[in-house]
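It is worth pausing here to work through a concrete case rather than discussing structure prediction in the abstract. The textbook approach is simple: state the sequence, then state the predicted structure, then interpret. We follow exactly that order.
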Amino acid sequence: MSRRNPLVCALAVAAAVMLLLAVGAQAQEKAASHKFVGADACKMCHQSEAKGNQYGSWLKSQHAKAFETLAGEKALAIGKEKKLAKAPQEEAACLKCHVTGAGKAAEAFMPTFKKEQGVGCESCHGAGSDYKVMATMKDKAKAIEVGLVVPDEKTCTGCHNQESPTFKAFVYKDMVAKIAHPYPAKKG
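Step two, the predicted structure:
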């Protein structure tokens, strides 16, 4: 009967734990390296009618106007009522749901990004610098591997919740249908 040396076993376990921590840290570092490119970078491939014109659907949505709404009378009145220290378009509590990537470090944004575009594609689909390339986008699994997020109800309720001063009942199924922007079915 062979006996294992407890010290050797402990060292092996410690090495395995260190390896897992290093791999986890690398994954976190990679996720942090994804940069926001802005809706115009998505527009190049997502504006043709043949492919569903997702960009056009977004442009017509309230999401595209989210930053702009913070300058409106209603937002200014809410800011005054809440005794915000800054104007709504400068207040972190407002920006977190009215601007893609709000609160992230400046290094998280490519020069093409414009906060004035409000809640853009990357608010729901993740920072696009590493998946925006056509060759990557043609392979959904690969795109997900490099940062593409497939949004779900939790993605939406991060902002559409009772924390919002203008919150109304949010029924995910109904709301996601309002912003649907699918690719058309292929003929063939």
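Step three, interpretation. Residues 24-30 have pLDDT under 50 and may be disordered. The domain at 36-178 is CATH 1.10.1130.10 (Flavocytochrome C3; Chain A, domain 2).
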